[in-house]
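A.,

Following up on our hallway conversation. Structure tokens first:
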């Protein structure tokens, strides 16, 4: 019998990589996407075939804010594993839509867990909740599974509720439920508004057309970056264990936003000269200003330093990375330049 997986957030970066990984593992994969005026399936177009064709991949319309749709889809698909990757996942945006962020990111997890319990599937379904390093926020690095949480955004706070409600349902109803506390993970299919993708997109355009400008916020925020392709493997490994546990997944190395700019520009053969300090710091290419700081990209409460310790995952899950930040930046630049050259 083939295993059946249900993925909420199928059209996102992680959902796309996880679906392809599970299909290679011979799973039957069901994905849930929100109904919108645009299809928004570009990340999974290569596996999203005509529904009339024979395939192991199926799409369903649903919404994490709609208990009935969650209940109906779980009842219909009868999954062995459920991955909750759906979220309003942009930290900056969460300050502008805090209630919506809480409804999707916090209560969405509760709705799935409650559906599992209500449908009597506690012994039949394994559940993965996508946590985030933003739950640590202002906690002193390095951060591991025993580090105190201190979120600094509505996004981080909503994800923290989802984390603890997952723990609660695991202990109260004996559900196999895991939290993956994932640090920043990127890829060529990262969303356009996330800082790594934004940097790559802008600098590739400048390199090719000698036009454009990159606006950034906190250049000195330090992050622990990995590749989404590696991190979805860790998600799967968590659900293959005998007992449900929570794990930090990270690279164990941190770099500043400014350093990521340096990596991308070096990959493109661009020599950027920095001048000025604070809000007036600017990046120049051939004496032309191409990078500026814009205060609108600063958050009301900043997270200055995230650095994960994933030794528990490496030991117990036998998880390992295949990408470091250098290989990640190289791949992101290469794929972006291919896209630009194909236009």
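Then the amino acids I'd put at each of the 343 positions:
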């Amino acid at each position: 019998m083939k295993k059946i997986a249900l993925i909420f957030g199928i059209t996102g970066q992680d959902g796309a990589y996880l679906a392809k990984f599970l299909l290679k593992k011979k799973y039957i994969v069901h994905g849930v996407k929100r109904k919108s005026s645009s299809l928004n399936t570009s990340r999974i177009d290569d596996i999203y075939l005509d529904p009339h064709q024979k395939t192991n991949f199926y799409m369903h319309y649903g919404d994490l804010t709609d208990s009935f749709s969650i209940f109906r889809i779980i009842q219909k698909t009868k999954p062995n594993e459920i991955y909750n990757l759906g979220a309003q996942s942009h930290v900056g945006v969460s300050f502008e839509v805090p209630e919506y962020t809480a409804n999707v990111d916090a209560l969405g997890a509760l709705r799935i867990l409650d559906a599992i319990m209500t449908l009597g599937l506690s012994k039949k379904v394994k559940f993965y909740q996508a946590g985030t390093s933003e739950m640590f926020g202002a906690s002193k690095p390095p951060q591991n599974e025993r580090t105190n949480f201190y979120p600094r955004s509505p996004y981080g706070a909503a994800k923290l509720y989802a984390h603890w409600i997952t723990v609660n349902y695991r202990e109260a109803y004996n559900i196999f439920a895991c939290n993956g506390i994932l640090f920043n993970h990127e890829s060529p299919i990262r969303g356009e508004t996330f800082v790594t993708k934004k940097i790559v997109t802008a600098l590739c355009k400048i390199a090719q057309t000698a036009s454009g400008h990159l606006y950034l916020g906190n250049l000195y925020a330090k992050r622990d970056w990995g590749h989404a392709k590696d991190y979805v493997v860790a998600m799967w490994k968590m659900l293959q264990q005998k007992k449900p546990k929570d794990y930090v997944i990270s690279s164990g190395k941190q770099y500043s936003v400014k350093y990521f700019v340096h990596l991308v520009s070096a990959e493109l053969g661009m020599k950027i000269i920095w001048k000025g300090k604070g809000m007036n710091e600017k990046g120049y290419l051939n004496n032309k200003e191409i990078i500026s700081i814009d205060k609108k990209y600063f958050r009301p409460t900043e997270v200055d330093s995230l650095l994960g310790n994933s030794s528990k995952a490496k030991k117990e899950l036998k998880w390992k990375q295949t990408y470091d930040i250098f290989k990640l930046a190289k791949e992101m630049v290469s794929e972006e330049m291919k896209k630009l050259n194909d236009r």
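The longest strand covers residues 126-132. Curious whether your intuition agrees with the design.

B.
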